[in-house]
Amino acid sequence: MEIKCLDEFMSQFPVFEYRIISTDRLKFEERVRYICEHECERYHTTWACPPGVGTLEECQRHCQSYSHGLIFSSVSEAQDLMDMEELLSYRGQHEQITNQIGDFMEEQGYEIFILSTESCDICEECTYPDAPCRNPHRMHPCLESQGIVVSEIAEREGMEFNLGGNTVLWFSMILFRS
Questions:
Q1: How far is Cα 98 from Cα 175, in angstroms, rounded to an integer?
Q2: Are residues 53 and 59 in contact, defined by beta-carbon separation less than 8 angstroms?
């Protein structure tokens, strides 16, 4: 699938690499959700994370209701890769890029669903699980919350996943359909 003017548009941003993939090639793995549950402090605290995003089967069905995905990465350099606060301070730039690319895709007439790096920090306090999300159009579940193994996509598509040194690659995927 080709998106009109995509190369020209993407060249405006510090996007490291991008590919368009068919969603029928996405794998949804329970093992990724297991890591969310056992290693992430955001599990069961936000609509952007499991179980708020739905079951693995629901996530797969929803993601594959879109025909294609635009997966892309951007790079940050950190002083200390073990300093999570520092690492997360660089995420905002990637999220801005993700939103701008999503806006472009919508302007091109596509219906989109954005999966990104966040477990959602829009609201000071999430309504989960007591009330619906206040900002469903702005809230982007993280790729892993859907059970998607990003490293496998990167490998299959010939994308870098680890640049070494003090670099961090941030990944987003914008699922889309006409």
A1: 12
A2: yes
From the number of C-beta atoms within 10 Å of its C-beta (0-12, 13-18, 19+), residue 47 rates as buried
For residue 117, what are the contacts with CB-CB under 8 A and spacing of at least 6? 91, 94, 95, 98, 142, 143, 170, 171, 172
Token pair in block for residue 72: 């892309």
Backbone region of residue 149 per phi and psi (left: phi > 0; alpha: psi in -120 to 50; beta: other values): beta
3-state DSSP assignment of residue 72: strand
Number of Cβ within a 10 Å radius of residue 53? 21
Q: How far apart are CA 161 and CA 153, in angstroms?
A: 9
End-to-end, the C-alpha distance of the chain in Å comes to 11
Q: Parallel, antiparallel, or unpaired: how do β-strands 68-77 and 111-115 relate?
A: unpaired
Q: Are 145 and 48 in contact (CB under 8 A)?
A: yes
Interval 72-84: pLDDT, tens: 999 988 877 777 6
pTM above 0.85, yes or no: yes
